[in-house]
C-alpha cells in the first residue's frame, strides 16, 4: 500500500525528533513487504513450480492464521507480526495486504517469462515498498486524484524500479520506460490491490518491450 504522506515532528534543524506510531508500523510493514524480492531467487534456485507452491502455501497458512486471529486465537509469530504491522483501518478486519502481495508475485511467475517476471516482482517489492515508506516520511506534495499519494513517494518508486530493472536488464532505456510505467500504476488509488495491479501491469509491459 502506498498512501504517501504523514506529518512528522522535526527539530529546527530538520532532523526527525520523534517518529509516530504510524511510521513505525509502516517500517515494519514494508520490511515484510520487501521480502517478496526473494521470490525470483527461489524460482531460479528451486524452480518456478517449487516457488509457486511455496507462495501458495504461505498465502494459505497466513489466511488460516489471520482467520484464527480474528477469533481471538494466537498463531506463533504470524499473529504478532500482523498486529505490529496493522494500520488503524485494519483493526478488527482481515488484513488483506499479505494475501494480495503473495498473489501479485504469483501472477508474475505464472504469466510472464524471465526476465519480465523478475522485473515485475522487484517493482512490487521495492517500487511499491519504498515509495510508501519514503512518501510517509518525506511526502509533502500530494498528487491529485491518487488517494493521498505524494510526489516524493512517486519519485522514490520511479528510482527504485529504474535501478532494480536496470540490474536485471542492463539496458537503461528499457529500465527507464518500465520505471515510468510502474510509477503511473503505483500512483493509482488502488489501495491494497496495488499489490496485484503493479506486478501484473509492470510484468506485462516489460514482457511486451522484451518481445
UniProtKB/TrEMBL annotation:
The keyword Transferase appears for this protein: yes
InterPro entries with a match to the protein in the record: Dgk1-like (IPR037997)
Keyword Metal-binding found: no
MF annotations from Gene Ontology: ATP-dependent diacylglycerol kinase activity
Keywords: Kinase, Membrane, Transferase, Transmembrane, Transmembrane helix
Positions of transmembrane segments: 52-70, 91-113, 119-139, 160-181, 193-210
Top-rank taxon: Bacteria
Protein name: Phytol kinase
Organism expressing this protein natively: Salinispira pacifica
